[in-house]
Structure formats: structure tokens, C-alpha cells
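Supplementary Methods S3. Input chains for the assembly prediction are listed below.
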Amino acid sequence: MSRYDGASASFHEMWRDLEPLGRNAGSGGYRRYAWSEADVECRAWFRAQAEGRGLAYEVDRNGNQWAWLGDPEAQDAVVTGSHLDSVPDGGAFDGPLGVVSSFAALDELRGRGVEFGKPLAIVNFGDEEGARFGLACVGSRLSAGQLGVEQARRLTDADGISLPQAMERAGYDPTAIGPDPERLARIGAFVELHVEQGRALDLSGDQVGIASAIWPHGRWRFDFRGEANHAGTTRLVDRRDPMLSYAETVLAARREAHLAGAVATFGKISVEPNGVNAIPSLVRGWLDSRAADQATLDTVVTGIEKAAREYADTHGVELDIVRESFTPVVEFEHALRDEIARILQGASDRLEVPVLGTGAGHDAGILSGSVPTAMLFVRNPTGVSHSPAEYAAEDDCVAGVIALADVLEGLTRR
Amino acid sequence: MSRYDGASASFHEMWRDLEPLGRNAGSGGYRRYAWSEADVECRAWFRAQAEGRGLAYEVDRNGNQWAWLGDPEAQDAVVTGSHLDSVPDGGAFDGPLGVVSSFAALDELRGRGVEFGKPLAIVNFGDEEGARFGLACVGSRLSAGQLGVEQARRLTDADGISLPQAMERAGYDPTAIGPDPERLARIGAFVELHVEQGRALDLSGDQVGIASAIWPHGRWRFDFRGEANHAGTTRLVDRRDPMLSYAETVLAARREAHLAGAVATFGKISVEPNGVNAIPSLVRGWLDSRAADQATLDTVVTGIEKAAREYADTHGVELDIVRESFTPVVEFEHALRDEIARILQGASDRLEVPVLGTGAGHDAGILSGSVPTAMLFVRNPTGVSHSPAEYAAEDDCVAGVIALADVLEGLTRR
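Predicted C-alpha cells for the full assembly:
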């Protein structure tokens, strides 16, 4: 029996229970949208895990779930966790791997007989992916005061259901949503474990890495407005077809991102009237763009906007561009990052743990403005994420649990 | 008082009654989908118009409405009419102008004291636009035997309601739908008046024109399949992004159509998973293309398909192309067309009535395989159609009524 068979068994039992919740039979992907039935099932799973381990369970004012070992009111708590919601047809690992690994790491530490010198908590942040209301990290943003209460109350999903209505229908109280500075002030360190959403660890041959920074990123909505007309009878010269400027802008985005070593994606579109024989009156496309630094991102997005305006002018199409969200670069606290590196190097016989940047946003990025924060990444052999094909190997997941346990043991001791 | 004040008053009274039915308050456009509540209201209006004029009202086996002056069982009837259903947020004129003008032309002829030598009928064909079940001209296709009964029974709308169920709910009997050759054999000529869906009459300065042909046209579905992945963390070189090949294909379609003097449109799209931060796994785009002749259309579509396959290969994307529908060129019967031209030239002091082709499909096109068929077009000053902005001037509509009355008078005399 290997040293880590206990952690492995604990991990797998949880993984098996969580796996069917919110899974779409057709695609094999997950549809765990915030406050949906699937999300409520995942939340019930979280509560059962907490209570089954004798942890104190609570829900904060923004619907985030907490499981406490030790006094939740004491200072300098060590907190770990992630999220359980998903993008449309997302993978099994993005989010849940961090939550499951947190409980498994606690089991591992209890197996080691560790006495905790500080309170320890596991958290499930609500609505990290933003799939339902269009804004990511709503739970952590609200708690950190990075999302206005009125703005949050106005968020609506595609069916016109508001965020407070959705919370209420899921059995949560939306009346007190808002900043939670006292709770955050009691946290000494927050560590989020996450599946890597790229292939850096695979290319370097490592199972686990530490985050250096989250790239600045934003979402922009491009509304191309032309004139609806009959696709069979309207001469090309009489058309004001917004699909053409949209298509040109998609290609411009790829070009600008390539030139700058950044990424830019048009992955979501909405067309009116969206009929086979109708020239569209409106093509609405969303741009997601990210780069290693702010100046590069500005260059990319400015280039795309300029090109889009020229294309729209050429086709007699009106263009409105709205920045829907923006997150500046996040540099994780260097002292905590270095401490975690020392812990992991001490626990293994390796000289160096890889430190890597990422283009993905996370609750850890949001919290980093209020709390010392760090992230661990687990190897993703294909780099695929936000897809049913997202995958991490069993051995790498267990290595992540052990690394997280080592880090929590070290941090609760310091 | 001008010579045509009677026709004008009759036209306007009907127009006013029909105008509010099925109108969407938000867009100002019409949502008169086949067998919907709005369609049932339009059908009640048709029946009231027929009965108010002492015409014999009947519904054929496919739910098309008929109003007869003279013996419906006699041979060599002259039939006019159009349809009352609409595309999503369509205009007021496409379809209804032909039906209203038919009743107004009858009023005009009665005002003239014309004695009809042949039976005369006004028809409202069901489900011309195909907005609900995805197939255009269902009523006329069924009657002409151009749509199989079993295929028709299998048509379902977006809510899973089948065509027979929809007919039944609207109070119509679907049990006998199918070919109606005896009815069609009794028709000596069918003339459909329609608002022009282009600007040819506006450019030539004419109020009314005659159709020469309906261009061949088809619909093709392009399925670009790539790999869903995280928009923030997937390097450009690791992507298989189907949105890029889609965008390139949209631009290729415009280019090929321009070179050939044809039209090609991508107006409908469906994306999976359609998330802002997800590279799509599937971009499904529909191409509508039409040209004056078959060879030109083949050239255009072959060119687009070839370009699309090259783009897909470049991006590691799989492409399936499916032809969803196709309608060959329709040449309206030359003898009837020439007779109508002589009638209209004789009734006015003009030497020539414009004869024009059209890219739009019509019930008249479907019937032309079974019955001598012709079409009249009324000037559309903006060319806009299938849009709330679709418009025809009052004077031009009345000119259309008078022209149709002249044609019906001439044809029932011959």
C-alpha cells in the first residue's frame, strides 16, 4: 500500500459522487449553471461533505459555501477551495478538482495526525464561470466589493430571471448580498488548486505548478447593426449586411492577437432575425482577449476596434462596442508564492517547482486584492478546458491533493 | 372624384382591418406564423371578406382558403390571390398586398359593371413563408404534389408540434392533406400580385411590372466542427477554431456572388457552446444563394464550397455541407405573360410594361408546374422586404389594384 492510498481513495469516492451531477448525456459535458437545479445538487454535495467530516457549515451573504475546521471567527485562517459551477458543456475538472482536492487534502492531513495551529476552511464560490448572468466570479466579486450590489441585482439570465430571483428559487437569501470585508479580513491565506488550462506543465514534465500571475483580460461586445432584408431579392450593392463586418472583424482579431503574442476569441454570437432567407439586422459578437501585460492587451484590442470600425463603415453598418468586463493583471503575492515553493520543494526531492502565468480568471484573482492568495495547477495533458474533453490523469490529481495537503500543513503551522 | 376612388376606399378599409392582426408591438413587424392565433385571425378576416361579398367560401384539403364568384366546379377559372402569413417580424405587404388587392380588384370590376365569362376565385395559400416548419409554400406544394404527404406529416415546429397537430389546433382538418390535381386542373390562369422585393421598378420609374421568372435558389447548411477549448488559455497554434473558417466562408460567399452577379447570404448561425470564453466546438451557418440561371448558381455555390473546404483544412476543422432545399428556375408561361402585357399596355397609354425576374420564391412559382401562372409586382421604393420597414406607397398599391382588375377583366373575357 503506497503512502497516499488514503488520499487517493477519498478523492475517488468524492469524484464518483459528484461526476453525474449536471452532466449532459448528449455532449458528455456539464451544465452546472449558477443557482440551477444542477448547481443546487452540487451544493448539497458540498454540504454533505462538510457535515460528514464534522466541519462547521455556513453560507455567507453572497451564497458562497464554507466548511470550517476550527473557529470561523478567529483571525489568520487558512482557506482553500474553488467552485462547482461550469461553462456550457464544460469539463469535469475546472472548479470541482479544487473543491474535491480540498476535502481530500484535509482527509490526508487528518490521516497524518496533523494538529492545526490555525482555523482551516474549504470554500465553494458561487457563479465563478458567469455562464448564466454573463459576469464571471460573481460570488467572490461581491464579497471583495468588486461588484456593486445594485449592478448585481440587475443581472438577468437569458430567460429574464434576475440574480436575486435565481438565488431565491435555489433556496438562498439574496437580501444581504454585498461586500464582506470582515470575513475576508480574517483570512490569512487563500490557496486555490485548479486544473491547468494549457500545456505548460505537460511540456515541462511536471505534475504540479504554482501560479505567478493572471493575465489582464476583458470582454467586449460588438453590435453590428445593418438592415434586415430579403436574402433572395436584395442586390449586393443595396445591402447593409452586418454579417460581413462581423466576419472581417473575427479575422482581424486573430491577426492582431497573433502579431502581439496574445489571444483573442469570438466564441459567442447572437443574430437577428437569424433566418436563412433574411439579411441580418443585427449581428452581436463577443470578443474575449487576454495578454501577458496591459500594454499588449491595449494594442490588440485597439487594433481590433479600429479594423471593425473601418469594416462597418465600408458596409454602411453601425457599430457599437461595449466593454462588458475587465480584469487587470493579477500578480499573486510574492511572499506567499515563495513560501509555497519552499514547502513543496521541501516535501519533494525536487529543486524547483514550476511557476507559471495563466490567461484564465479565477476567484483567487479576485480575492488577491483583499487577501494573500496563491494558486496550484495540476497538469492537463491535452491543455483542453471548457470542453467535455477536459482531462487530468488520476496520478496527477492525487499528486495535486498531496501538494495541497503539504501546503495547508505548512501554512497552518507558520 | 378620381376614376379609382372606389377601389382606393375598398383597399383602405380592408388594409385597416388587417393591419393590427399579429403585429408585434416591440418591433412593429408581423408574426403571422402558419396556423398560429394570428394566422387564424387573418383567416377569419379572409372568410368575412368573402362572405361579405356574397362569394362562395371553401377550404381545400390542404387548408388553403378560396372565395368563388361563379361555379367552383366549372372549367377554366381565373384565380388570383397570395398569402397572409409572414416571416418573423416581417412587413405588412409581403403576401397581404396580393390578397387585399384581389378583393379590391373584384370591387373595382363590380363597380365597372363587368360581366364575368368565367368563374373567378380569390385564394389565400397557407404557410407560404415556412417560418414555422422550415419549409416554404407548404399549402401550394401539397396541392401541386410537390411535397409528399408523409414528409408533410413529419414537419414539426420549434416546440415539437407537428403540422397536422397545428392545423387541428387551428380548427382545420389535416386528415386529407395531399395532392389536389382535379382542383388545379379547373384553373385556367393564376395571377399573383406581390410587392416587389427589390428596387427594379423604383429604378425604372414604374408602378407595376410583370414577372418573367423566379431565379433558381437553394439553402445549404455548413457545419464547421472544431474543438471547444478555453479562450483565455489555449495558444493560437493549439486551436481548432471553427469560427475562423466560418468567417472566411462568409466573405468568400460575398466574393463569389459578386463575381457572378448572383446573391449569396449567411443570415442564420448556430454556435456551440456559444460562450464568451469558449472557443466553439461547432459553428453551423446557413447559406442562401440564388442566381438568374442554374449554371451561374452552380458556379457560385461550387466556388463557396471549395473555399470553405480549404479554410476548414487550414484550421484543422471538419466541414460537412448539406443541401437542405433547392428550387429550380421557374419561367412563367410566356403566352399568359404576353397576354397580360398586352392587357396592361392597352389599359394605359404606355408602350411597355416592365418585365422582371425575381430571387424570391412564391406560390405562383410552385403552381407554375401545374397551371398557367403569372405575377404582377408593385413598386417598393426602398426594396426592403421581410422587415418591419417593408413599404409600398398608397398610390402604387391602388395602381396595382387597377392593373390586377384590368388583367382579371381581360382574362375572364378571353
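DSSP finds 13 helices and 15 strands in chain B. Chain B touches chain A through 63 residues (CB under 8 Å).
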